[in-house]
Amino acid sequence: MPNRSDAPARPRLLVLRALGLGDLLAGIPALKALRRAFPGHEVVLAVPGALEEAALATGAVDGVLAAEAPGRGVPALGHWPYPPPDVAVDLHGNGPASRDALAVLRPRRLIAYAGSRPLPELPPKWHPEEHERARWCRLLGAHGIAADPGDVRLPPPGRPSPAPGAVVVHPGAEAVARRWPGERYAAVARALRAAGHRVVVTGGPREDALVKEVAARAGVPAHDVLAGGLPFAELSALIAEAALVISGDTGPAHLAVAHGTPSVTLFGPVSPLLWGPPRSPRHTVLWKPGPPGDPHAATPDPLLLHIRTDEVLTAALSHLDAPQDEAGPCAR
Fold this sequence. Notes:
By secondary structure, the protein is α/β, with parallel strands linked by helices. The chain has two domains: 12-142, Rossmann fold (3-Layer(aba) Sandwich); 167-320, Glycogen Phosphorylase B (Rossmann fold, 3-Layer(aba) Sandwich), CATH 3.40.50.2000. It is 31% helix and 14% strand. A six-stranded parallel β-sheet has the order 8-7-6-9-10-11, sandwiched between helices. Residues 326-332 have low confidence and may be disordered.
């Protein structure tokens, strides 16, 4: 919740991005740009309450307004407890619903893509095929706020890793369409362990069965099975000090980018051109181009299933066997 002390209130800047962890992390460049552009404002992020710790860890947010809606919808913001924000920024969607959720609060200035109500400033056009980080930086740039899509880093975590130097295997994802089969993750993990690498398996709070299945198939010992959904601070420290992160297009992949940790990310059905890491030898993306799939499907995407176990293992070993100041090839 924003600051409610008796001290004179600073002007408030409210940002709407009430989505998931990966979405929050993809918004880091825009959030950091807003922090620089409005140094005297109290920056409040409307985000699911479960992401408060992650939001504050960006260093660009002063407080959180808990807000979420089913199915990645637009939440109502009527519980905003203060006078109208000085500035409101829609980083949630292309409008009009998300723009109008902020407009109801009567901010002095509203920054958003096109909506149903007239804006005092002509908004830029929404480009569906634009990368997520670039999209929001371009929006801010159109309103005179300099933003760099490559400004992705988080401050270092303030706690030690529970498994420093381990390979983190994260087989889960919010959408089944983005889940590569557990038995394939297990085969990769088993081969990495045979090569002498420590492997830990992580998952979200509703993925215990998957995490335990992958760990059992790979022979991962119980103390390296991190089920139940780690608190953000612990997950962040784990990723920051990992040797490598292997996952689908989900929160830990974005966290690896935010900490500069080498990663191998399996994409499908959404292209890495829309959600992938910045081009860097530290990050390898595996992707089989083809017709776009349904990101909300109840079965794994066919293009994702075309990624072979040996491809993932080769990419992983190329990072793990590289000198410490290198990280292997960047594939597209």
